[in-house]
Design brief:
Elements: H1 3-6, H2 8-16, E1 25-27, E2 34-37, E3 42-52, H3 63-80, E4 84-94, H4 100-116, E5 120-128, E6 133-143, E7 158-162, H5 172-175, H6 180-189, E8 194-197, H7 202-213, E9 215-220, H8 233-238, E10 245-249, H9 251-260, E11 267-275, E12 280-283, E13 289-292
Parallel strand pairs: 4-5, 9-12
Antiparallel strand pairs: 1-2, 2-3, 3-6, 4-6, 7-10, 7-11, 8-10, 9-11, 12-13
Helix pairs in contact: 3-4, 3-6
């Protein structure tokens, strides 16, 4: 068997089966970040993201946007846990022939995001590489009573999403801003049962919540906010790299949230969580219901 036959997520499951955590670890493989014991009132959050030229960006996109995306993607993971980013490392692989100004632009993009979100760059590594590779390892923290996992969805929950999805292929994946303020507002003021950021696509990432929570869902085409730059509806819900937040909460909390949402960021209720035997269904604008297989972007 080769990796392409196994697939990215089955590979992750294969690795996870052989990992045994100590009591120092609260949550390991299987969420947006690891969750580790830290202080009496807080958990430590730990995540990493690797961006590779030709897969996550093109060199013609420019170093500045590549740098911004690299740190923003990791901050989005911390946001999805309800936490705050604190410290990060940058590991950079670059060709020896790359113009020094291009490297400066990568770090300028990283620094601008770090300044905006008050995160400290505390080290890293540099190596020679045939293509540009940027890897961010980010530490954050979250109050124990504010932690949100993928696995907490409950039957009857309403499903919400921030912002718009689709259009990553048109460049939106390079210009997004992680929804950290929105996530912290949600965690501090509401009982969020589950949350994830949309990196693999709405259908895939909602599928991660449902799989971890052992539940199903119904979502409605008419309510899903599609970006004007999206190719079409199908690509918008599956192509990924939107970095919006998808989360679930009770109907009562959902009603309270809708009445008090303080941000200009769009907030949309797109469906409901149901029993697992119903799987994931999409109700089209004409009322027809279709079964959805939780698929999206994968590396293999």
């Amino acid at each position: 068997m080769i990796l392409k036959d196994l697939g990215e997520f089955r590979l992750i499951d294969r690795i996870a089966r052989h990992i045994k955590l100590s009591s120092r670890s609260i949550k390991g493989i299987g969420d947006d970040t690891a969750v580790l014991r830290y202080t009496e009132k807080k958990y430590l959050l730990f995540t990493c993201d690797m961006l590779i030229e030709g897969r996550h960006f093109l060199r013609t996109s420019g170093g500045y946007l590549i740098g911004k995306k690299s740190l923003s993607a990791s901050i989005s993971d911390i946001a999805a846990m309800g936490g705050e980013p604190r410290f990060f490392l940058v590991s950079l692989g670059v060709p020896a022939s790359l113009n020094l100004k291009y490297v400066d632009c990568i770090y300028r993009g990283i620094r601008d995001v770090a300044k905006k979100f008050n995160v400290d760059l505390v080290g890293g590594d540099t190596v020679s590489s045939g293509n540009i590779i940027v890897n961010i390892a980010l530490l954050g923290e979250v109050e124990k009573n504010k932690l949100v996992l993928r696995s907490g969805a409950k039957e009857g929950d309403e499903i919400f999403i921030t912002g718009f999805i689709g259009g990553a292929a048109e460049g939106r994946h390079l210009t997004f801003s992680p929804r950290l303020k929105e996530a912290r507002y949600l965690a501090r003021n509401f009982k969020i049962h589950s949350m994830i950021d949309v990196s693999d696509g709405l259908v895939a990432d909602l599928g991660h919540i449902l799989g971890s929570s052992k539940l199903g869902a119904v979502i409605y085409e008419r309510d899903i906010p599609i970006s004007k730059s999206a190719k079409n509806f199908k690509s918008a819900i599956k192509e990924g790299e939107d970095f919006e937040l998808v989360f679930t909460m009770s109907r009562g909390e959902g009603k309270r949230l809708t009445a008090s949402w303080p941000f200009s960021t769009r907030l949309s209720k797109i469906g409901e969580v149901c029993r697992r035997r119903k799987g994931m269904s999409l109700v089209r604008k004409n009322g027809k219901k279709e079964s959805m297989i939780p698929g999206g972007y994968t590396h293999f």
